[in-house]
């Protein structure tokens, strides 16, 4: 495949890469796009030769496609699909090493987020229709929803044995790792590129972005944070080696019901899918799980809003955060404020929290 410049389609991701016109400036990074995990994947690689970059990019995309097929919660022949059938029938199941790793990480992150991030609410996701590519605008069965919420399905309900067998006595648990798989795959892609000898790259899996090294000219990679109501970047910031950034927004997957906007970010506490914020962005410092936490940590901040953002940020190791509320006002911590460059300045900007 020949290297290509990113097109404006990249703006559909929660985060958009800036500096797209630089494709004509030497040395140009190898750039490639694909569609995996139900979202756009974008790779920018600097390598010793175009062949090295092409081979590394192809290997990463092939692995992402394999993981997508393995972990898809709504495909009956996937590993996650087989796990969910076993859980629904009260039977034990031995998942793949990849899914097992996600389940164990998910249990730990569920606890750290006070249960606001929970990959066990697949049945709630299905009730709202967000398991489909195009959610239906039909009414939700509120009686079924209330009964499901009352049963409190959580990932902690899974019992995982030392040899990797998974079982649960609570049959309302349905695993959906969609809220963490992209970030987890980002960490794996980074390690895969490093093993292939790539030291400079920018990886974007559905708006979860990680920097590997610097650009070829020695300057940091620049990324943009999408404006939740416009098809453009609201702000930009430099992303340093090993850092990851991710956004959850009400614009990504939503549906209008009875004149109200409902989004895929469902509150496990009450099953509510109302869109209270427009978006929540988190910046994660370099770590072996930076990509994973860039995917997970935005959800609790989105659900609980500015008042509890600093608390969730501390619990989940978030270095910087930005919330855009329902009125388009910005709330962010000082650490991110010091690095952010506004392109579209909100009417109100409030710095709050520590760091």
Automatic annotation (TrEMBL):
Gene3D superfamilies cross-referenced by the UniProt entry: ApbE-like domains
Binding site for Mg(2+): 179, 295
Domain of life where this protein originates: Bacteria
Cofactor: Mg(2+); Mn(2+)
Signal peptide: 1-21
PROSITE patterns noted in UniProt: PROKAR_LIPOPROTEIN
Record note on cofactor: Magnesium. Can also use manganese.
Keywords: Cell inner membrane, Cell membrane, FAD, Flavoprotein, Lipoprotein, Magnesium, Membrane, Metal-binding, Signal, Transferase
The EC number(s) this enzyme carries: 2.7.1.180
Record-linked InterPro entries: ApbE (IPR024932), ApbE-like_sf (IPR003374)
Reaction catalysed by this enzyme: L-threonyl-[protein] + FAD = FMN-L-threonyl-[protein] + AMP + H(+)
SUPFAM superfamilies named in the record: ApbE-like
Intracellular or extracellular location(s): Cell inner membrane
Record Pfam families: ApbE
Gene Ontology CC terms: plasma membrane
GO molecular function, one term: transferase activity
Topology term for the membrane: Lipid-anchor
Family: Belongs to the ApbE family.
Function description: Flavin transferase that catalyzes the transfer of the FMN moiety of FAD and its covalent binding to the hydroxyl group of a threonine residue in a target flavoprotein.
Name listed for the protein in its UniProt record: FAD:protein FMN transferase
The species this protein was found in: Vogesella indigofera (Pseudomonas indigofera)
């Amino acid at each position: 495949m020949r290297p290509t410049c990113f097109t404006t389609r990249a703006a559909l991701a929660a985060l958009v890469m800036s500096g797209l016109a630089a494709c004509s400036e030497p040395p140009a990074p190898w750039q490639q796009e694909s569609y995996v995990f139900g979202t756009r994947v974008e790779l920018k690689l600097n390598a010793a030769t175009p062949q090295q970059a092409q081979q590394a990019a192809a290997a990463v995309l092939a692995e992402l496609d394999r993981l997508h097929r393995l972990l898809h919660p709504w495909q009956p022949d996937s590993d996650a699909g087989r796990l969910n059938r076993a859980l629904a029938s009260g039977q034990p199941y031995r998942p793949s090493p990849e899914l097992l790793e996600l389940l164990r990480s998910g249990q730990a992150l569920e606890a750290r987020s006070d249960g606001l991030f929970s990959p066990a609410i697949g049945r709630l996701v299905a009730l709202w229709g967000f398991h489909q590519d195009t959610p239906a605008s039909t009414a939700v069965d509120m009686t079924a929803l209330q009964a499901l919420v009352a049963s409190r399905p959580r990932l902690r309900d899974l019992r995982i044995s030392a040899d990797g067998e998974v079982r649960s006595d609570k049959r309302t648990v349905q695993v959906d790792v969609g809220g963490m798989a992209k970030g987890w795959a980002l960490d794996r892609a980074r390690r895969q590129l490093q093993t292939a000898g790539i030291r400079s790259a920018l990886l974007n899996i559905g708006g979860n972005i990680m920097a590997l090294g610097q650009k070829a000219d020695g300057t940091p990679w620049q990324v943009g944070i999408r404006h939740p109501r416009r098809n453009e970047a609201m702000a930009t910031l430099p992303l340093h080696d090993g850092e990851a950034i991710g956004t959850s927004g009400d614009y990504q997957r939503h549906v209008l019901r009875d004149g109200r906007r409902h989004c895929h970010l469902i509150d496990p506490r009450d099953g509510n899918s109302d869109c209270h914020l427009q978006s929540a962005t988190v910046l994660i410092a370099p770590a072996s799980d930076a990509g994973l936490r860039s995917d997970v940590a935005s959800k609790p901040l989105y659900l609980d809003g500015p008042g509890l953002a600093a608390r969730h940020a501390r619990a989940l190791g978030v270095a910087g955060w930005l919330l855009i509320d329902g009125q388009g006002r910005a709330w962010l911590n000082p650490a991110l404020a010091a690095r952010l460059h506004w392109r579209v300045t909100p009417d109100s900007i409030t710095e709050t929290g520590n760091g």
